[in-house]
Write a structure and sequence with these properties.
263 residues, alpha/beta, six-stranded mixed beta sheet, four-stranded antiparallel beta sheet, 12 helices, 10 strands, globular, binds adenosine-5'-triphosphate, cell membrane
């Protein structure tokens, strides 16, 4: 079992934003966390990555490959991030500096762990660009973020997240800022990466139509609590909680606009 979260609670400034949630993600599984805005999805993701605001109080347990992450020192968490757990955010701009070439950014995590010559770094960047389906890898690694499209920036951010070969990728609304066609391509990429590399994926979204394209199992968060869990197919077929029903209705309402995303 790659990740086991038990009784995780997070409070910030005395407010409980994540309330006693538990879930587990076996090796290689694609797992969805869904909920309306403010339900605690991002706080859960940030807790897995040791990136919560300093004033956050965390209790419970996050076991990753049998190692307890709650209470880990910043320095140790930094080693886990990138190396064992990769992160992809909604806005590739958050992950990518506008001032550095894509190739250097894609290989940043690698260069923390290995001393690479210029030629080796270049080769690794081209290899990563190829793996994430960037066009003309040899030239795109020399481009700056503003010189490529939003979808290509997200591919580069994904390349940076997988560079050091993490066993788990956490993706927080990674397709929300993209148009529907590009969104579908990025979902394909996540699926391919997890199938080829056996990487587990935690995919966070408010959109059930997106989630059904990528995840096998899921939890639904509402007010910081898990209100429903199970396989994506069964939750879609038979939603129990009112907030899950609202998510299903929203997914149906947008489905006519995007036939490939029909729930
Ligand atoms: N830095 C912070 N300090 C205090 N409260 C915060 C902070 N960041 C988020 N919160 C609160 O924590 C709760 C959970 O927020 P979180 O960002 O996890 O929700 P979310 O489900 O990811 O929403 P969204 O889809 O809008 O990103 C919200 O009520 C939010 O207002």
């Amino acid at each position: 079992m790659s990740l086991v979260v038990s009784g995780l609670s997070i409070s910030i400034g005395g407010t409980l934003v994540v309330d006693d949630i538990s879930f587990s993600v076996p090796d290689g599984q694609r797992f969805g966390i869904i909920g309306e805005s403010g339900s605690g999805k991002s706080m859960t993701a940030l807790a897995l990555l040791g990136l919560l605001p300093e004033e956050a109080l965390v209790t419970g347990s996050i076991l990753y490959q049998d190692r307890e992450l709650v209470g880990l020192r910043d320095r140790d968490f930094a080693a886990v991030r990138g190396d064992q757990i990769g992160i992809v955010f909604q806005e590739p701009q958050t992950a990518l500096s506008p001032l550095r070439r894509l190739g250097a950014q894609m290989t940043a995590a690698l260069r923390i762990h290995y001393t690479l010559s210029r030629a080796q770094a270049q080769e690794a960047a081209i290899d990563l660009a190829t793996r994430v389906g960037l066009p003309n890898p040899e030239s795109i690694v020399r481009a700056y973020p503003h010189q490529v499209s939003g979808g290509q920036r997200q591919r580069a951010a994904i390349a940076a997240a997988i560079a050091a070969g993490p066993d788990l990728l956490v993706a927080d609304e990674p397709t929300t800022a993209l148009d529907v066609t590009v969104q579908a391509e990025i979902l394909d990429l996540f699926r391919r990466l997890s199938e080829e590399g056996g990487t587990s994926l935690i995919f966070i979204t408010h959109d059930l139509a997106v989630l059904r394209q990528i995840a096998d199992r899921m939890i639904v968060l509402d007010g910081g609590r898990v209100v429903e869990q199970g396989s994506v197919t069964s939750v879609l077929r038979n939603p129990q909680h009112p907030s899950t029903r609202a998510l299903v209705a929203a997914a149906h309402a947008t489905a006519w606009k995007r036939p490939e995303a029909r729930p």
